[in-house]
Specification:
It comes from Longibacter salinarum. This is MFS transporter. Its main location: membrane. This protein is an all-alpha fold. 81% of the residues lie in helices and 0% in strands. It has a single domain, classed as Growth Hormone, Chain: A. The protein is built from 19 helices and no strands. Helix 1 runs parallel beside helix 8 and helix 6 runs antiparallel to helix 9.
Length: 425
């Protein structure tokens, strides 16, 4: 007896969708382990004074994650989503153990190579699998829920490790949490997650049924890379906004804890501020992704980049805890407006047959922002001080908002869909 064909939609696939949300929370928790503790660990235990050297772990993480993203999308299209998801967890298993035992900073950097691969493979697959399940009508909502789960877990892990470090030490106690996250995430992926490649093929068949000339949407990897990176105006705008957004996240991850420490804040308050940014980011995405399904993608992205820039400039306006908290809230709100909307815009434009590859290319550029951010933030902080670094990156963020508002077309509009079709001709 043959199984029934897959059905698209959130309600039709609710159980599997929820399972993927849970799995992505564990993926996010693996990154959150490091948000508070690792920059402080670099100074306190390894004696590293150079901001550029401290931020090397973020550059390494970002480079490996960016490369893993584009490989993940292509492998997921070719070999199936679940296999790539499980592979990501296998690579992530030793990360907390290496950080606990690391005798030198180079071992911590190596652990972040593995973490980057883990995040690139596992997080990419949770995104692509949710897009597969819900179909074309609720992509913004699906991405909002996915990213909300991931970044709320980032926030929770950052907050938890901050308090654990304050009560015990910077290591090993905070990283015991990571061992549990990795084991549970792997087991859940192996035993409870089902592959969604058949759902992608169902959407592809539906698309071709209403677009008889759709054969021209069959493109090579190289062509998908060109379309996503620069040939399509909307996807170019999305890719550069993603890069700048994660440049900001790299700054927040690697430099903010040190900046807060120079202001005399205790590690518990540093952990709270570090957690506040991804908490607002995570919670906000529950609404912003769905709103972009109704209001459109372009102006949600442009406004989100502008709000992030305001948050960065606010950060250096004063040293009071309330001012710093307000800046982190603004950064989180702006990122929440941008993050799921960028992914939904990619899914609006890319054909189902190469959507996974296109998402991987976008995430290559987006997570390349960690590398750019680490280099720019580290070099400018060493040369101009941390406040100078924050001002420069704030200006780049404002410029990104201008690029989106002037270059991007609205991907949800009929005219936008026509332009997307023309980009593949």
């Amino acid at each position: 007896m043959s199984s029934s064909p897959p059905r698209l939609g959130l309600r039709e696939n609710l159980g599997q969708f929820i399972m993927l949300v849970v799995v992505n929370a564990f993926v996010g928790g693996m990154v959150g382990l490091e948000r508070t503790v690792l920059p402080l660990l670099a100074e306190d235990e390894f004696g590293i004074a150079s901001r550029t050297a401290i931020l090397s772990f973020i550059a390494t993480f970002g480079l490996t994650k960016a490369l893993a993203n584009t490989v993940a999308g292509h492998l997921g299209d070719r070999y199936g989503r679940k296999r790539v998801l499980v592979a990501g967890w296998l690579v992530g298993l030793p990360v907390p153990l290496i950080v606990i035992a690391a005798p030198t900073w180079e071992w911590v950097v190596f652990a972040n190579v593995l973490l980057g691969i883990n995040q690139g493979l596992a997080w990419s697959m949770t995104i692509i699998m949710k897009v597969d399940l819900v179909g074309p009508k609720q992509r913004g909502l699906a991405m909002g829920l996915n990213e909300a789960a991931g970044y709320l877990a980032v926030s929770a892990a950052a907050l938890a490790t901050g308090y654990i470090a304050g009560a015990y030490a910077l290591r090993p106690e905070p990283f015991y949490l990571g061992i549990g996250l990795a084991i549970i995430g792997l087991l859940a992926s192996v035993f409870f997650v089902r592959d969604t490649s058949a759902h992608a093929k169902k959407e592809e068949a539906d698309w071709e049924a209403v677009n008889e000339d759709d054969g021209r949407f069959e493109v090579s990897y190289a062509e998908a890379f060109r379309i996503t990176s620069w040939r399509d105006r909307a996807l170019f705008a999305v890719s550069q906004a993603g890069l700048i957004n994660n440049m900001n996240d790299g700054l927040a991850w690697g430099l903010f804890p040190i900046y807060f420490a120079t202001l005399g804040l205790p590690v518990e308050q540093i952990g709270l501020l570090t957690a506040l940014y991804p908490a607002v980011w995570g919670l906000g995405q529950m609404g912003t992704g769905a709103l972009s399904d109704r209001w459109g993608r372009k102006w949600m992205i442009a406004a989100g980049m502008a709000v992030q820039a305001v948050g960065l400039f606010t950060l250096i306006a004063g040293e009071a805890f309330g001012v710093l908290a307000g800046a982190m809230i603004l950064m989180g709100a702006g990122t929440a407006m941008v993050y799921p909307t960028l992914l939904a815009a990619i899914s609006d434009v890319a054909h189902p047959s190469w959507r996974g590859t296109s998402i991987g290319v976008y995430r290559l550029w987006r997570d390349g922002g960690y590398v750019v951010g680490a280099l720019v933030a580290g070099i400018t902080a060493d040369a101009l001080g941390m406040e100078g670094s924050i001002i420069i990156i704030g200006a780049l963020t404002a410029a990104s908002a201008v690029v989106v508002s002037t270059v991007m077309y609205e991907t949800l509009s009929p005219d936008g869909r026509r332009q997307a079709r023309e980009a593949t001709e």
